[in-house]
Amino acid sequence: MSDNVDLSIRQFIEAWRILSSAASSYSTHSAEAVECVFSGVPIPFFNAAFLTARGLSPEATQDAAERARAWAGRRVPWILAATHEAMDPGAGCAAMLESRGFVPVMTLTGMMAERVAPVEHVPEGLELQIPEDDAACQGILDVNSAAYDMPFAVGQPVWGRKAFWKDHFAVLGFARGRPVSSAAVVMSGGHRYVAFVATAPGQQRRGYADAAMRRALELAREAHGEHPTFLHATDAGRPMYERMGYQAVSSHTILMDKCFLGEH
User: Fold this and answer.
1) How many folded domains does the chain comprise?
2) Whether the predicted model's global pTM rises above the 0.85 cut
């Protein structure tokens, strides 16, 4: 199995630790074949359980998911991340976990690039800014809330504050004085990990997110050097990342306990 598969899992976990550890309700848990990283903020995406073992059989996968569920309870909604390449060949991840009440909600692709070129041309009408205060940092959450239809606003005490971003690299794109794109980079295990990439609805396909992301990577390079970069892409975002030179190294199904989806 490719070492990049293990790298993808470890990058996922480490990045979530970095992003979640500033929350006052942050907690973690390790058990056989599963690792949990919870911010405690009621945004499912930032409370995550990761299946970590390789070659998991269907029974072992189900048991690991149940261990995560037993620890997580119903404190906050959370996700379960399963890496296809880490399981027994032919094991149907979604099907085996659906029988235990986990519902697939999205797929992600682990992607890596040794180098990404800096911004060569900022799209007309776009201004790239580094958030300098809490109000500007709130713009990161506003753009992501609109783009992904998730309640990012409740994360304002954590990710909407300059105190968090002072050690990381965030960029906002403004058009006509309003934030329309965002991207951020954190240093994770020797990699520049990319997160919070989003474009406001109605502003897509103009290169706004591409420009913000390249600038955030450039800021991280200026501070820490030319490290490889890693991210986990949605299906919608993957074509943009491929154009930037990222290559797929892993595939993940993201599931949720159906009790958080109103299904009983």
Assistant:
1) 2
2) yes
